[in-house]
Amino acid sequence: MRRDDEHDQDVYGTFGVRAGVVVLGLEQFADAPRADGVPVVVVAWEPPAGGDERLARILTELM
Amino acid sequence: MSAAMRAMIRADEYRDAGVLLALTRHLESAPGVRRAVAMMATPRNLEVLRKMGLAPPQWPLPPKPGDLLVVAQADDEPTVLDAMKRADAWLSSRPTAGALVAQGTAMDDAPRTLAQALARQPETHLAVVSVPGPFAAREARRALELGLSVMLVSDGVTVEEEVSLKTLADAHGLLVMGPDCGAALLDGVPLGFATAVRRGDIGVVAASGTGLLELTGLIHRLGGGVSHAVGAGDRDLTEAIGGRGTLAALDRLAGDSATKTLVLLGRSCARAVALRAAERAAATGRPVVAHFVGLDGELPELPGVTWATSIADAAWRACEASGVTAPPWSTTPLGRPDYAPSQRWLRGLYVGATLCAEALSRCRHLAPLSSNLAVEGVTRSARFRVAGHHLLDLGDEEYTRGRTHPILDPSTRVDAIYNAANDEAVAVLLFDVVPGPSGDPVEPLREALTAVRERSLARGGEISMVAAVLGTDDGSPRRSAMVASLEALGVTVTPDHATAVEAALALLPEGEEP
Hints:
Strand content of chain B: 15-25%
Number of helices of chain A: 3
Largest interface: A-B, 46 and 74 residues
Order of helices and strands of chain A: HEHEH
Largest sheet of chain A: 2 strands, parallel
CATH topology of the largest domain in chain B: Rossmann fold
CATH superfamily of the largest domain in chain B: Succinyl-CoA synthetase domains
CATH class of the largest domain in chain B: Alpha Beta
Radius of gyration of chain B: 24 Å
Strand content of chain A: 5-15%
Distance between the termini of chain A: 17 Å
Shape of chain B: globular
Mean pLDDT of chain A: 76
Oligomer: heterodimer
Number of strands of chain B: 20
Low-confidence stretches of chain B: none
Shape of chain A: elongated
Distance between the termini of chain B: 47 Å
Structural class of chain B: alpha/beta
Helix content of chain B: 25-40%
Structural class of chain A: alpha+beta
Strand order of the largest sheet of chain B: 16-15-17-14-18-19-20
């Protein structure tokens, strides 16, 4: 588990957002940070459990 | 003329809401196509399809939740068949990452999981999660476990999941913004629906999307600047969540040397939780401006805390505290048009929940008053047409099932505006305009707003239209351009939302105004 330390805050800002953002879901949400010069990685996300919401919740509870 | 309908199932093919919306628009752009829908075959979406009258009497195979559905309705059989072919070609030209890997035609290039994304970009501190609600909590938890703070744009996350996520974040010194957090500005970076605003020394913690956008946009237009604007989530200041997100954000801002003034903006607040948050803000030693939309009852004096009376008032007071003085905006007195005797009611059609809540709190003296938002003393109704003054938050979950938020997909609001255009009892139409990542938000409303004007004039009594326009001239599209487009359509645009509500009230026919 990594935490925001003081070094990161100096370099990347209080919230460390300038260090990079990962986008899961709507790809449009990558546009604004990218346009601001922030490195963005978009995850090619697909629903687990074949999109079965009920099964996905059960799996989450088991995690 | 009777319509022809066809449906297609693409098994085990996931597409996100943005792609599905783009496909729907692609199909509907063809002449003769009346309606098209592309959605994942979840049980909820199948129900939505049935209610829309677009569910075929029988599926070739029963659809599974991981299947993609495309349904089109057109004037005739050749047109609908052509729509299906075009859907197939459009999707096939955009293979999913999974399909590319399965075919062996691509290396596993795009990361498929958060862990893979982090391996590629190990310095990352934040995950922006907007996957469908039922899966969102699971991905947010993964992100926290990997040491990332989370902006959770998705709705459909339960209260229990939210508490669990925020507790985990607290334990690791991380932040969870949301769920239903549409906008944030961190380290000057616009996230979600946020648009760029001037950087400055005002730190904001707000419930979520449109309230945060109205506040930060106004600060910018008044000449002030924003250090960070954190979205805590709509429910954060309720008893159940206990302000966990807000308190964590305040602690983070307390350690930020760039933040000299704090603004707290909430809605759906429990009084005790809201006061605790205001006290925590004051304990940072910075001047605090706070406004909790809809929180009734007198608020106690708290040292260092100034209570604002609206979101706009909070922006003015924050700028004042930050040493920025702006001349008051000039307002032009509005002339009431000649209404037909049938015209009586105010109809509010919002995409922003906080703005809708603010309008409701300023219209409480109107009767009868109804809304789809749960507010004490206000009749609950989600229907478009109600006899009485009626304010709707069209971003609420009941309207977004099976489709994306109206900031991205304006179709629900367009339908609601046409409904108002055809309603001879509507006197004043009030709405918000929120720039999103999908381009100019006025353009999709143009025809419907023209219909409001033309149809009401044809009935012998013009409907007054009033809008609050968010954004700034630094954003895209520029606010001044959106204002000019609306004014050309006969819409009155005010400098801020609270003034829009006042203008709408002043325009109500005699006997209905306060």
